[in-house]
């Protein structure tokens, strides 16, 4: 049976392509149908129509409010009979809102697997992202074959909300590393060190990281087309601060990167890749 897919943004398109490359048939839904008409997928008329055609529906949306909309809109997922249906949610959700998603899907007789993606477009196309999942063990086990088609590393944290919290913690590293690499790049430019040599040396020195490996070419080419946007990392770091606040936990190193990415958003560059933060340090 075909897989349902909702959320064909940059990351969603990469994941859907990976699944089709792995011989999965995709039926898609998008609130603006014209945005996905050229992608080559069968298109459902509504989330309800989609889940009636597919036993498994994958969500890959920007934030929890978008997930809630897909659940509760006219002809939304919650208007369907969810008995025997599973929703795999790859969205980076708010750690509190996601708890309600588990609850409402369970009440409707369906299965919900909270499964945020760690990684962006390039690794997603190759099935090299990391996925951390929370939910019922039986649900995780039944979905693992699909998760393994899009992810290289798969982790399971049973308690609802734990996967979303882990994703936010991971993105503290992501945002901090990117801000530091960007500042190092701008400083190297100011010192008249060629950028390719600078990034090569950082790559075997203190800058070694998946972030640098992923962004070296984009920094060299000043290619700011989005794989992971400033808007997305800003949203995630803001949610991370919500998490720290709820725990009465000081969070020192998240504050500055969050505000730097916030400045990019304010400057109208929110849709650029988050490596474009290098422009702030050059300005």
TrEMBL record:
The answer on whether this UniProt entry bears the keyword Repeat reads no
Occurrences of domain 6-phosphogluconate dehydrogenase NADP-binding (ranges): 3-156
Keywords (alphabetical) are: NAD, Oxidoreductase
The stretch of residues making up the signal peptide is: none
| The UniProt record lists the keyword Ribosomal protein | no
Q: Which Pfam families match?
A: NAD_binding_11 (PF14833), NAD_binding_2 (PF03446)
The 3-hydroxyisobutyrate dehydrogenase-like NAD-binding domain is annotated at 161-280
Annotated catalytic residues = 167
Q: Which GO terms describe its molecular function?
A: NAD binding; NADP binding; oxidoreductase activity
Checking PANTHER family in the record gives: CYTOKINE-LIKE NUCLEAR FACTOR N-PAC, OXIDOREDUCTASE GLYR1-RELATED
Q: What is this protein called?
A: 6-phosphogluconate dehydrogenase
């Amino acid at each position: 049976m075909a897989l349902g897919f909702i959320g064909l943004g940059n990351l969603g398109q990469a994941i859907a392509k990976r699944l089709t490359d792995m011989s999965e048939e995709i039926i898609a839904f998008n609130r603006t149908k014209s945005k996905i008409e050229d992608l080559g997928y069968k298109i459902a008329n509504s989330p309800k129509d989609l889940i009636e055609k597919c036993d498994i529906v994958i969500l890959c949306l920007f934030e929890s409010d978008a997930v809630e909309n897909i659940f509760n809109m006219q002809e939304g997922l919650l208007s369907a009979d969810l008995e025997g249906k599973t929703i795999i949610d790859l969205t980076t959700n708010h750690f509190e809102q996601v708890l309600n998603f588990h609850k409402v899907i369970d009440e409707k007789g369906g299965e919900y697997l909270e499964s945020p993606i760690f990684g962006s477009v390039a690794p997603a196309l190759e099935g090299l992202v990391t996925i951390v999942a929370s939910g019922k063990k039986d649900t995780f086990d039944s979905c693992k074959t699909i998760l393994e088609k899009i992810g290289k590393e798969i982790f399971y944290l049973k308690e609802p909300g734990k996967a979303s919290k882990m994703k936010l913690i991971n993105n503290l590293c992501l945002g901090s590393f990117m801000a530091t690499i960007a500042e190092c790049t701008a400083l190297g430019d100011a010192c008249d060190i060629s950028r390719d040599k600078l990034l090569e040396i950082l790559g075997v020195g203190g800058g070694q990281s998946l972030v640098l490996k992923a962004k070296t070419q984009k920094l060299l080419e000043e290619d700011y087309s989005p794989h992971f946007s400033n808007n997305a990392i800003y949203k995630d770091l803001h949610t991370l601060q919500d998490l720290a606040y709820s725990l009465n936990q000081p969070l020192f190193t998240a504050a500055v990167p969050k505000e730097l990415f916030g400045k990019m958003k304010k400057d109208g560059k929110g849709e650029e890749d988050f490596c474009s933060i290098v422009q702030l340090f050059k300005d």
